[in-house]
Structures are given as structure tokens and as C-alpha cells.
């Protein structure tokens, strides 16, 4: 119980940073109207719909939401009692990967992955479930990414002192553990992520910032602040490169997020020749924004939060040493 309290307490500074009081615009694309969507933890854009799932404590279900209204237009039920569903990733037309990979206390021998259909209308499915095993023991994770060209899947762990990126085997065995392969280090406390359409870059988020990496090298390109959210846990990228963010909470808004111009310039491929036409904007403006809100940035609270986080981490490590 004490470990669970400490793990939860370490999130508090970041939540305070997100909701704390000077002015930053955030573009609200839509708001989830379904009271059943109360802990949006993963986000995917599929066939013009937002697809999301609640995290731990819910049954195994995935919601398809019309961005024009915020209303749920379809629910896919795939399991009665998953352990801790935390992430979604694109799986091809009309489908998503669902990642039951949460493990706050790092006690699970294996985590699970399933591929389910999504879209308008309700359905119950019985998908093949694949066991995933880390090479070095249990980890907590909330992030699953799918490469836009190859379909390669990545799991990113959520850890206090730095996350790690693991590759999922290309061929999954439904009858035996599928061993993950470590690729490199990543953002600590990652809550979601996605590939950009070029397949050469990916973006990960935590509660207050996003970090862009090259792929497959996993070299850091830039770190940028995110607009304030109640408890930001979802991130999706559509096929034009538009970035969207979701958050836990009832009637939570989905935000449009645009990488700064200087960061976007780093992602553009070099021109074919000095005389060539400039590349088109890889992240064009989305459809008209439904609502604009003005909030105050929380960076002073982020600094305080990080200090508090370090202190709580020290307490947790002290407890482990005394065992």
C-alpha cells in the first residue's frame, strides 16, 4: 500500500503543473461527451475518428469518437477483466492494437497485446492475445507505437529515472511468450507517443512536455512544453502529421498541438537541389478549431514539481534499500 501511495504521490507535482495557474492558448478540437470515458489513456486517429481507451480499473473496451461532436459512435469490447490497459496504436484500416502493459508495482511476469476492430457501431470481439516479456524482468509502461510503414511495434517504459524503448517481435506467437528487445533510452515518465508520418521520427510525451527522437537511432531532436491538461496521457498523430493530445477526467478536451517551427524545420528532409521547390508543410493546420481557451503556463510549478518528485524518489529508493 505504501508503495502504491508513493507511486501516486509522484504524479501529483506534474498534475499541479498542468492545472496550475499567465497566458498560453490551447486549441480544443473536441470534448469527450461520453461519461464512460473518464480516464483516457491512449489515443489514435483512425478513419476520421478519435479512438481512445480508459486505463486501469475499466473493462476491456475501446471507444470511437466523432471529433465533430465529441460523441461516442462505437464501442469495441474485447475483454472482461484486463489487468491495466494503458495504450493504443494504429493496426491498419479499421483496427488498433490495445496494450495491457501497465504494471505500477512491476510484478507482472508478462504483459499483453491484442488487435481489435474499431469504428462506428458496437461490437464484442474475442481477439488473439499475445504475451510480451521483457528481457530483464517486469517494467511499467503506458506507451505503444506502430511504425507507419512497417507496422513495427515499440513499447516505451514509464520509469522515474528514464524510460527505455523495446521492440516487439515482428512475428507474434500466440502460444508462447514473445520476448521484447531493448533499443535504447527514452523520456522518463512517458505516458504516450506516436510515430510521425515520415517514419524517421517519433514523439513521446509525459504530463508536461514532449520529446522528438530520430528512428531507429533514438537520438533526441528537441524537447518542447505541452499545453496544460488535467492529467495528459494520450497522444496521436494523423497521417498528415497533426498531433492531438487527450487527458484523463470526465468531459476531457482533445487538444491540437503544433510543434514549433524551428523543431519542424529539423524534421523536414533536405531539398533535392538548390533550385527545387520547398517541401510542403509536414504538419498542416487542422480543420477549423472548435474552441480556443486561454490558460496560464505552469512552468514555475513544473520546477517545484520536479524538486518534489526527486524527494519522493529518494524516499522510495530508501525504502527499497532497507528491505
Describe the 3D structure.
By secondary structure, this protein is mainly beta. The chain has 2 domains: 1-22 and 296-323; 27-294, 6 Propeller (Neuraminidase). Helix content is 15%, strand content 39%. It is built from 4 helices and 23 strands. It has helices spanning 2-9, 12-19, 261-267, 299-322, and strands at residues 24-31, 40-46, 49-54, 60-65, 72-79, 87-90, 95-100, 111-117, 123-124, 129-133, 141-146, 153-157, 163-167, 178-179, 181-186, 192-195, 201-205, 209-214, 220-225, 232-237, 243-247, 253-257, 291-295. The strands form 5 sheets. The protein has a 5-stranded antiparallel beta sheet, with no helix packed on it. A 5-stranded mixed beta sheet has the order 2-3-4-5-9, with no helix packed on it. Strand 12 and strand 13 (163-167) form a beta hairpin. Helix 2 packs antiparallel against helix 4. The model is unreliable at 1-24, 275-304 and 314-323 (pLDDT under 50).
Record the SSE blueprint.
Layout: H1 2-9, H2 12-19, E1 24-31, E2 40-46, E3 49-54, E4 60-65, E5 72-79, E6 87-90, E7 95-100, E8 111-117, E9 123-124, E10 129-133, E11 141-146, E12 153-157, E13 163-167, E14 178-179, E15 181-186, E16 192-195, E17 201-205, E18 209-214, E19 220-225, E20 232-237, E21 243-247, E22 253-257, H3 261-267, E23 291-295, H4 299-322
